[in-house]
Amino acid sequence: MKRLNTIKSLWIFFVLLRIPYLLLEFPGCIYPDTIGSIEQFFGYPDFTAQLSSSDPSTILTNHNPVIYTLLYGGTIWAGNLIGSQSVAVFALITLQMLLHSWILARLFILLRPTNKNRKVLAWWNVSILFTALFPIYGFWSTLMLKDALFSITTLWLTLYLLEAVQSNGQLLNDKIFLLRFISVCFLFMLSKNQCFYIVILLIAATSLFYRKWRLSATLSISALLYFLWLHILLPACHVALSGRQELYGFAFQQTALYIKQYPTEVEPEEREAISALLPYDSIAALYNPDLQDPVKFRYRVNASDDDFARFRWAYIRLMKRHPMVAIQSVWAGCNDYFIPSGRFPLFSPSFAINEPPCEKFYTMDTLLHPQPSGMNTAMHIPLIGLLFRMGFYIPLSLVGYLILLIRRKWEASLALFPVFVSIGVLIISPQNGCFRYVMPIIWALPIELLLIISTPIHKTATQA
Q1: pLDDT in tens, 242-267
Q2: DSSP alpha helix (H) spans, 192-233
Q3: Burial class (CB in 10 A: 0-12, 13-18, 19+), 211
Q4: How far apart are CA 13 and CA 128, in angstroms?
Q5: In angstroms, rounded to a whole number, what is the distance separating the alpha carbons of residues 361 and 73?
């Protein structure tokens, strides 16, 4: 491992070990959300248009961030121009993998032990090998999926935070570094709608930690840019924002479980308030403990602000009456992230199918179907199978973060802040056991390990 002491050599090492996965799953793995983005790009509104707007002319939405509509739809469009959609998809996946490998190489070099502690050096080498050889990481490199880029931007933001803390906050005085940091924060927010709130919390935490209150105003430029993007530019381009079901899905799910368990204890005015938003008579049958979609996707798009206010009033009354319903609903919707049950795989190959309107812009004869990954089989092998279960890793990440706090490694905790908040998001996630939501957390585990075992040393970080 002595030869892997530079960013370039480590980057090449990661790239070489990703290539077999890219070839195996050629041209790349595409999932339903990606298909929806591509459909919108070519002028065919998917179901999210109906959820996000009552205007029948709406085609583009930010339900899945519109940046992916431009990126993924543009990739298929470019493939049509060059005569091979497979080549275009493969090129995008490859570029994504190259960037991801570069960020990982930067992170590991920043955390390379500077002393002669053989134990720490050994763990550094093990962490690199695990990141390079773990099959899940390799398969994740083949994803043409919004969460793949969300994971990249999460690690990219972690990289900048690590550089800042290793410089003891001095880099935050550097205008060039701040400009790049703000840019990455903006990209992070573009990658997932809820990242806006994570960045706001991060700005507050960073400013409080270093007691640099002017820093709040500077870093808030990224949040301002995103606000302008979301509320000025997108509406001006006739792009509908995400439907309100995304914000209320958590409450909708709890309400559905309450009606399922206590149908006779709903008072007439509560039923009326719920019916203004949801199909009351079918909501109990629609309830799926692992997935919010069947309930939340049935909300009434034309509902008024008063209807939502009345629903909130009814929802609070129901949860006060039987608070265990709220707890049961939350746990049923996230337990596989925290218990290694093995119900859901960490990866499964997928691709678009030839059905309307897909055949209008997919030339399926040029697209190859990915090969099975074997993840379903691997996770049921005794002991070894634990390594392929997401419920094994998320508790490890939580314990690791707790260790950092107990040892008062505040700076390391700050560097991992976006990852830590992502764990919290799992609790209210719309789908239980979805590998897409754990990607940035599990990607960051080797980095978290090195931050736990390393001695806090401030050093001058190479600017990104």
Answers
A1: 888 888 998 999 999 999 999 999 99
A2: 195-210, 213-228
A3: exposed
A4: 10
A5: 10
